[in-house]
Amino acid sequence: MSLAALLQAVRDELRTVMGLPMIQIEVQEDGQPPPGMGGDLYLSVHPLSWRPTSGAEVVLGIDESYSVGVTITKRIRHTPPDRIGREVYLKSLIGFEAIARKIMVAIHQSETVMERANQYIAASQTDDNGYDPILEWLRWSSTQEVPTRRDGSWLWETNLELASETVTIVFSEARRIQQSSLME
After folding, report:
1. Strands 148-150 and 41-52, how do they pair?
2. Which member of 62, 73, 109, 158 has the greatest number of CB atoms within 10 A?
3. 158, 152 contact by CB (below 8 A)
4. Residue 149 near residue 27 (C-beta atoms within 8 A)
5. Chain centroid to CA 28: how far?
6. What CATH number should be reported for the domain whose range is 2-182?
7. What is the four-CA torsion angle of 45, 47, 49, 53, rounded to 10 degrees?
8. What's the CA dihedral at 77, 82, 88, 92 to 10 degrees?
9. Handedness of CA 154, 46, 72, 172 (dihedral sign)
10. What is the pTM for the complete model shown?
11. Which DSSP letter does residue 38 get?
12. Using CA of residue 22, residue 27, residue 33, residue 34, what is the dihedral sign?
């Protein structure tokens, strides 16, 4: 439940700060938007890893770390691939950087995201034994520096040679330690 709780909490925070319709920000299995992506911009919140915390030794419990990705997909309109020059490239890069920076600021070490994830975890409990909360928030760890150009298949379309560009922002090191007696 911890990873799902983090994904939902990140989605909720981005819906609050990004000023986009709710349908344009959702949890996905990977960075790809769903078929029928509405609008020219989509933010996919997706899992990247769930693993034991490196170097941690917990007796009678587990120490977990989580990583989450946010992939920005921007639809490209009316620009044939052979016409994309430096000016168009720089304009696109500047646009991605502004969006990525807003996402980074919203999620990096966000108490709101951590608290909301813990609320999702608490709501999922089926007994009165309590739960172990997420103790450390997500931290920004990288942003893809060059947008990836995607063909129509990324947007579930077949007739567009170059249909979109994507950039992924990675947040990692959210941490939860669970006692054996409270494991979900």
Report:
1. unpaired
2. 73
3. yes
4. no
5. 9
6. 3.30.70.1700
7. 70
8. 60
9. negative
10. 0.87
11. -
12. negative
If you write DSSP's letter for every residue of 59-127 in order, what string do you get? TTEEEEEEEEEEEEEEE--S--GGG--HHHHHHHHHHHHHHHHHHHHHHTT-HHHHHHHHHHHHHT--S
Distance CA 34, CA 29 (A): 10
So what's the pLDDT on residue 25?
95
Condensed to tens digits (0 to 9), the pLDDT of residues 149-158 reads 888 889 898 7
Per-residue pLDDT of the chain (184 residues; tens, 9 = 90+): 689 999 999 999 999 999 998 899 999 999 999 998 878 899 999 999 888 776 666 666 778 889 999 999 998 765 555 666 666 666 666 788 999 999 999 999 999 998 999 888 888 876 666 667 778 889 999 999 888 888 888 989 876 676 888 999 999 988 887 766 555 5
Domain ranges of the chain: 2-182
Q: Nearest-5° angle of CA 47, CA 166, CA 46?
A: 10
Of 167, 128, 110, the residue nearest 144 (C-alpha): 167
